[in-house]
Amino acid sequence: MAVAVIDALAAGLPADALTTDPDVIEGYRRDRAMTAEPGTPVALVRPADTAQVQTTMRIATAHGVPVVPRGAGTGLSGGATAVEGAITLSTERLRHCEIDPTSMLAVVGPGLFNAEVKAAAAAHGLWYPPDPSSFEICSIGGNLATNAGGLCCVKYGVTTDYVLGLEVVLADGSLVRLGGRTIKDVAGLDLKRLFVGSEGTLGIITGATLRLRPAAPAVDTVVATFAGVADAGRAVARVVGEVRPSALELMDRAAVAAVERVRPMGLDADIGALLLAQGEGGSAESARIATACEEAGATYAAVSADPEQGEMLMAARRMAIPCVERLGTVMIEDVGVPVPRIPELLERVAGISERHTTAIPVIGHAGDGNFHPLVTFDPQDAEAAARARVAFDEVMDAALDLGGTVTGEHGVGTLKTRHLEAQVGPEVMALSRRIKQALDPDGILNPGKWL
Ligand SMILES: Cc1cc2nc3c(=O)[nH]c(=O)nc-3n(C[C@H](O)[C@H](O)[C@H](O)COP(=O)(O)OP(=O)(O)OC[C@H]3O[C@@H](n4cnc5c(N)ncnc54)[C@H](O)[C@@H]3O)c2cc1C
After folding, report:
1. Which of 4, 50, 123, 196 has the highest local Cβ count within 10 Å?
2. How far is the CA of 414 from the centre of ligand 1 (A)?
3. What is the C-alpha separation between 225 and 233, in angstroms, rounded?
4. Residue 31 CA, closest ligand 1 atom number
């Protein structure tokens, strides 16, 4: 089977699109969810255009060989993890980019990094807002397939809010174009949204038409510290009840300490938690955010109009995951709860950490109620790993108990499959499987993942 499919790929694709070199393939087996054990692909395909993606899918269907779509491999839930005996299809060479300043949109290939789309838009005085912390290293295709969020999403929305159109290759190699260049379009079912967040299980996104906004307004930055993490959680509800900040991020004491170890910024190691917020520059917004934090019990709150200082603080927040990863193996939660339940979630995470003697630094897009408790353990210590696994499950149970979700932006992947049904229920799982069956009857797209 492996030889036959490789022969067919070699006959159907240009030589530079196909690799079977194990050393090269090794670099494409994992994503950033270090806990998911990958299989070994039979081949790596790096198509240069949509037609080559179609050829690959036709061959895969004919041979019954699975295909794992892959962007930049920065996913945190195991979605792009290689499957044994499958073809891994990397979108890295699908990099077309056209900006239409009049219609304020971008037509892009999935292989572009998020940062490259932002830069292309900025060259025309425009802005593509979705900003995962990984924006410099993750692909737009991966963002679309996970419906990525980020720091400014509290005010400006997530990836799906910017999708006008998609080009998708289905499992049998057929091509569909969904939506288009118009701002308003209600013709037929809104199928493009079905593919946004489908994590490579329904089709391969080979192009996207993305909405742009006028250039981002300048921002002021608010720093507020709190004695306890739940106090910071209470302040979040107060802030978003008054203003809609452009960002509202939380780091607890352990997360601040982890970042300070790598990039010292003079932050007080004794604080219980830190809120970082941004409000429109020169407006009263930031002062109101700072006041709301003080009224909610902040031990310190200040506004900075210095863009460099603001960017340094936000960069520190974006570095939190890699900094905590220096402490051990990390299972990254991505839970979300309604904003009023944030303090309870943070208290429960602290209790879980204590009960299982497992370090769980917490960071999060607090304004969205979306948190990343970072369940950290020594990989050499089997007992610690087992305790961490239980703690990981309990954090997701706590989020569900509080009316929340097991994943706000990273996707289900392989890491949260067991908890998905607990969240959505058997009827929704059955409906999802019927949709999968209709689009991918042989089940060759990203098998073994959540759907
Ligand atoms: C330090 C760090 C910080 C992060 N911060 C954030 C954050 O703030 N917000 C956030 O949302 N995420 C964040 N992430 C997670 C990750 O960067 C995002 O999920 C990102 O969208 C993944 O993009 P990627 O190109 O790396 O996709 P990959 O990891 O390669 O793939 C992710 C999923 O998408 C599928 N896929 C990829 N491309 C396609 C395609 N063209 N068609 C169909 N399916 C496809 C894959 O099969 C897989 O299921 C962070 C990651 C890191 C390492």
Report:
1. 196
2. 13
3. 11
4. 29
With a 6 Å cutoff on the Cβ, whether 132 touches ligand 1 is yes
pTM given for the model: 0.96
Residue showing tokens 């969240």? 423
Give the span between the Cα atoms of 256 and 262, in whole angstroms.
Answer: 10
CB 367 within 8 A of CB 247: yes
Parallel, antiparallel, or unpaired for β 97-100 and 67-70?
unpaired
pLDDT tens digit string along 12-45? 999 999 999 999 999 999 999 866 689 999 999 9
Tell me: the pLDDT tens digits for 207-258? Answer: 999 999 999 999 999 999 999 999 999 999 999 999 999 999 999 999 999 9
What is the architecture, at CATH level 2, of domain 327-415? 2-Layer Sandwich (3.30)
Nearest CA residue ID for atom 27, ligand 1: 142
Cα–Cα distance, 61 to 374 (Å, whole number): 39
Q: Indicate whether residue 409 lines ligand 1 (CB < 6 A).
A: yes
**Element at 122 (helix H, strand E):** helix 114-122
Does any ligand 1 atom lie closer than 6 A to the CB of residue 166?
Answer: no
For 217-325, CATH number out of 3.30.70.260, 3.40.50.280, 3.40.50.720, 3.30.70.2190 equals: 3.30.70.2190
91 lines ligand 1 (CB under 6 A): yes
DSSP 134: T
**122 neighbors 386 (Cβ within 8 angstroms):** no
Query: Which of ligand 1's atoms lies nearest the C-alpha of 144?
Result: 21
* CATH code, residues 97-214: 3.30.465.10
Closest CA to 289 of 34, 280, 148: 280
The Å distance, Cα 238 to ligand 1 centre, comes to 31
